[in-house]
Amino acid sequence: xxxxxxxxxxxNIESLLEGMDEAEIRNHLRSIPLVNGHLQAQKEMxxxxxxxxxxxxxxxxxxxxxxxxxxxxxxxxxxxxxxxxSEEIIPNGNNGETFESLQSYIDQxxxxxxxxxxxxxxxxxxxxxxxxxxxxxxxxxxSSEFRHSYNYLGNAFVERITEGQDLINLDAVGFTSxxxxxxxxxxxxxxxxxxxxxxxxxxxxxxxxxxxxxxxxRKLYPKxxxx
Length: 227
Known about the structure:
This protein is of the alpha+beta class. The chain is built from 9 helices and 5 strands; from the N terminus they run H-H-H-H-E-E-H-H-E-E-H-E-H-H. The chain folds into 3 domains: 1-31, no CATH class; 37-76 and 193-227; 79-191, no CATH class.
């Protein structure tokens, strides 16, 4: 029918539509069920795409703001770290008792010999020489070890020796009851976590992507917004 009208007036479809309001044409075409169903399906598809854009952009903005805030927090409030050091391995007694230091263990070990030497009226030089010989036996237990922690463990803490080189050193001098190390706090420092800068930059990038997503969504579906 439309083709006959165009042939009768000797015009083409472009000339017929020229000057006509597109919205008015759509409204008239909606009266046709097939056309109305097609337009409605297009609108629903566009709505779903717009919703996907909106959700994705919102998630990017939320994730970006969260990461940005964490990065800024890491840079503004540095973490405090604690350095602990131990200079000696302290062997346990034969009955499993523990000592505050290697010196206190050696003193107890030397006490019987010291008492006997005093009874024998030994000279101070002889007593000191015997004490040094005993100390030399435990020289391998004078080894340093360090701990770095982000948690405050007190001014000092005791750590039991259950494995590793320390246990080998104890076995080498004949101790089979294990031992301990006393770690003392010797340094406290503030550290700015390196990942804070990366989180700050990454968060800003994600936030920019989210905002860009909203802009693109409005450019892609302007008619849907007007409807």
